[in-house]
Amino acid sequence: MSFATIAALLVALLVGAPVAAHLLRRRQAEEQPFPPAKLVPATKPMARRRSMLEDRSLFVVRALSVLMLAVLGATPFVRCSRLGLARRDGASVALAIVIDDSLSMRAPLEGGAGGPGKRTKFERALASARELTTGLRSGDAVAVVLGGAPARVALASTTNMAAVTGALEGIEPSDRATDLEGALALARELLRSVPHADRRVVLLSDLADGAPNALPLGGGSDTTLWAPLPELVASGSDCAVTRADLRAGKVRARVVCSPDTRAAGEGAAGISASAGRAVELRAGGKVLTSAPLGAAVRAEEVALDVPEGAPEELTVGLTPGDAILEDDEAPVVPAGGALPIAVVVDVASTHVATGGPPPIEQALAAMHLDAEVRPLPAVPDHADELAAFAGLIVDDVPGFTPEGRRSLAAWVERGGVLLLTFGPRAATAPLGAGFDPLMPGVVRWGPSPSQGADATSAVFFGPSAEGLAKLSPDGRASFDPAAATNADVLARWDDGAPLLLRRSLGRGAVFALSLPLTVDESDFVLRPAFLALLDRFVGTARARGGARQIDVGDAFTFDGFKDVAIERLPVRAGEARRPIPVVEQDGRRRAVAPLQGRYEVRLDGERAVRVATVPEREIDLRPRRVIDAARAEELGGVVPSIDASPYVALGLLVLAVLELFLRAVGQKREGSASTPA
């Protein structure tokens, strides 16, 4: 509240003036006839008594006038506004409202540190969605999509406004990463089935999807994109504790900070929010030890010694807090080692001109995915050897022996994740070698009739899909139609043939790429999509294998258990346990972690603790661009505000007229009372 507003409201204290005026008002002494008084000479009366509060109606009118003057001065523009859309010729519209429920939307709407009393961007987005739906008419259609990774459909397209209201009431904030590409793709898909000519995707997001330099959102589509709230656009910076592992008496906390978007100049990307902050090891709210952060941290691992006698439940937090308090603290997890990923590559055929390990190993090491890369000369033939790995990458597969296929299939069914890339060696498989049941049918290698992939079919790669348009392949693998049966086609060539498949097998999964990971056959390993593929592969291996620690938005998997229950443990005092629904999908029982923190799992009576951590890609508040047409005024905006000042002034005028009337009536009454009979 500004000083001018406070000063105007202080005018209300003048309401005491009418009270004082009425109480201090002196009136003429009342005369009572007393016959003997005529024998005494008349003298001028000197004594007057104070009157009690009289003319109550006049007093009320004057007090109301003073109060309305205070209101008029304090709120010269009392606004009653809401978000509304502009219609084309008054016709019905079909909306797909994308609400970003990711971690970055927990930032306060105004600058400064967050807190319980601050209105967040998520709350503003949700309130705006409600405002839009209240202004819709009969015949309008609405769908609701959530933009946290992975993007989800909260409500399919419907004309039932009661269902829309119920869907909006059930939306809650989360600690997920952002998946705007996937959310917009889902929104456009939902609008394809509606008969409306006017179809719009309403984007309510801060646009911080971790890809600030990607192509603007909204391009290349015939569906209108509308981003009506520029005040939601991300700004500032944030630091987060993404994970904290306990090893050999030390806690190693990984701290990630985003670049500061408020800085100006070419060096803005190098400014960090870590200056003046420290990392603390805490137990029950008590600080056990701390260490300062660097002045310009982008990603740093801080080691903290655990004091003797420290309790088992520890947390690592940042001090002081920043815009997003929810990512400033993470539970300490006893580490069982990095995720083991085996890589089988022919070093002779897969090389880099600059030297060093093959591209797969270099990329996994550079991405800091907390994965331990173990190069192997060949694929292990025995299940015992495969059991040591959570994921396996085999480049340019020459085929597997029957024993090898059985071992690999059994390993995948127990939760292993396999990435097979097919190159020229797939066509020269030895006699008896094959890929079934990992990849049914025959795999062939030949010239590629396409030069790139269809970016619209490659939502799996996120913003990196645009780089697949021109891969310049010397050849490509072709899969039998049986391979795509009961499989997810994650990307297609521009002629419709599968580029990347994913087949679920038991608890695990098999990825199949129709290109080898070598620069001699295509440009795939030179594209950002190559890194996106490895990131998704490692994330799948961590989730499918029943990992104790996953990213928020991923799912804990429970196969082979009859009684499964999971609850999120309280993070702060006063919080309650939060049950998490366990659903069955594709024959597998899964529970998605929407928030970071500890989760207690009960599996057939046994208890275990698992942890969900903040995705690192979400700690970047640099906004993604949108096309200029998404801000067009003809799409809609804030409905013109109602200025309440004229109504307050009219009320004052009515009170003034009423006061004159009451005074005239009062004077007439007093005059008639003083006239002698």
From TrEMBL:
Residues 1-76 form the Aerotolerance regulator N-terminal domain. The keyword Membrane applies. It comes from the Bacteria. Keywords: Membrane, Transmembrane, Transmembrane helix. The chain crosses the membrane at residues 6-24, 58-78. Residues 96-206 form the VWFA domain. It holds the Pfam family VWA_2. This is BatA and WFA domain-containing protein.
